């Protein structure tokens, strides 16, 4: 049984394009809406793609902007300028 990779983001206008791109790019993602936060869980791994967020924003987006809306995460982090991936290594 694999563990769930997870990311929890603020529930605000700045986070909405990030949330929408995570949902679009990660089939099977489970969404838990809480007051002020949205928790996204996915079996195996969950990825935030810079290009996907930029498409929704209509402007260039630096992946470091993710930290402005990030509340928590679970998994091993792999990131570069184009993606931010959380997964569990066995």
Write a brief structural summary.
With 90 residues, the chain is α+β, with helices and mostly antiparallel strands. The chain contains 2 helices and 7 strands, in the order βαβββαβββ. The chain has a single domain (4-87), classed as Monooxygenase component MmoB/DmpM (Phenol Hydroxylase P2 Protein, Alpha-Beta Complex).
The Rg value, from CA coordinates, equals 12 Å
Largest sheet: 4 strands, antiparallel
For the record, what is the CATH homologous superfamily label? Answer: Monooxygenase component MmoB/DmpM
Query: Which residues form runs of ≥5 with pLDDT under 50?
Result: none
CATH class: Alpha Beta
The SSE string, one letter per element, is: EHEEEHEEE
Shape: globular
How many β strands by DSSP? 7
Q: Structural class, judged by helices and strands?
A: alpha+beta
The CATH architecture category equals: Alpha-Beta Complex
Quote the beta fraction: 35-45%
Distance from first to last alpha carbon: 11 Å
Oligomer: single chain
The helix tally amounts to 2
Average residue pLDDT: 94
For the largest sheet, list the strands in their spatial order.
2-3-1-5
CATH topology type: Phenol Hydroxylase P2 Protein
Structural domain tally? 1
Helix content percent band: 10-25%
